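Query form — protein Transposable element P transposase

QUESTION: What is the three-dimensional structure of this chain?
INPUT:
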Amino acid sequence: MRINPKQLGYGQLPQRLPIHEDVIQMPLPAPRLYRWLQEVPVYPDQMIVPSMNILKSNWKGTHMTRLCCIAIDEMSIDPRYCYDHNQDRIFGGEKNVTVITVRGLCYAWKQVIYFTFDSSISAVTLRNIIRQLYEVHAEVVSVTSDMGSKNQAMWKELGVGRVIGGVIESTRFKHPNTGNNLGVPDLPHLVKLLRNHTMDNGITIEEGVELNKDFFRDLIMKQNEEFKLTFKLTHKHINCKGKQRQAVGPAFNVFSRPVAEAATFIYPHNETKGKIAAFIQLVSDFCDLTNCRSKVKTSNPYTSPYGTYQAEQDELLERAFTAFSTMVVGQRKRRTYAPFQKGLLMFIISLRGLLNDVKQPPANAKFVIPKNMNQDLLENSFSRLRSFGGFHQNPNAAEVGHRIKKLLLSWNFVTPRGTPVAIEPNENDNSDCITFIHAKSSEKPPCAGI
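ANSWER: The structure tokens for Transposable element P transposase are given below.
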């Protein structure tokens, strides 16, 4: 399987021009690149050396450039036995690969730093990864994962999310070098789980007010083709099963502003339905704030970065915290939290704590972008890893490392805009005529922009 040169930024470089390895630090033409790629040290259960070298070299900018977030997730792979001739090692029996990525909190950069075929990441391994990142000038401020059983065991080992008397004691754990890190559950996973529990068993918002699939079914039946208020809400949203539940979009469509406004319009004098509509509107505003990906301050406090309208945004988070902590999932007793319910409360506590941390010197940040704290980057990385195989989208354990190498190359070399070469005034001398563009701006670190 060959590498597409356009993914490496070489697609527009003429083959007839002399290429110098001391200029672009990578061999050309393509056959030499394939041989060179086989020797790149990317192995499981250890830090990925090329990523660490990139992070270590020539940081530019302020302390905010160094602040970063770790994301942990796993991808299913082919469990059949295979042989990796580069490592002279036999793999097999592993059904999943756990991948760890790091991305900038305030600046656009990202790297894959670690992968393993073990069942889970231990607290010792995570602390060691954070320590090694600090040694290459990347300061981890948060760690994100979903609320799977393996990750819950890791949080428990770190002392994160312990509930005592219905109160979450702490979402922080000790940083090996600087102080405290924050454990952050992945919000899109939590919203999907909120939808699943609502449709399966129902949730009690407050005494006598229950939200289940019957509410959404009645709301759809009240509308017809000529009178339609919830265009994105269909029976597929409330009856999804199996892999259909993995999609994030339908879960956000269920708890959206149009659904809340439609319920208010259709049931204007029903107090119970009005409370349900208010809860859906609260979840919608909460998702807008925690899914913000822009640095631009808008007129809507809930679609602006967290910290730009701190008073209004803190008031929203306080109302969401109260609603999530008092709702009852299924037949549970009050003040006993379902895993996703505890995750929502942990996310709110961690988000507020993160803003307070980055506002302090030496970062002196004014706001944070909550989107950088979820696992979307990691999910997109899994899609890229699968796409490298064409129709063979389920790699085995030996192929995972090779595909990660290609992902690193496609991330860390940006395709130049305009002409791919810069010709010196003396056009007769082509000895040093090529300038490769590594980044879009000199103010960003020497890593891939997002």
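ADDITIONAL NOTE: The chain has a mean pLDDT of 82.
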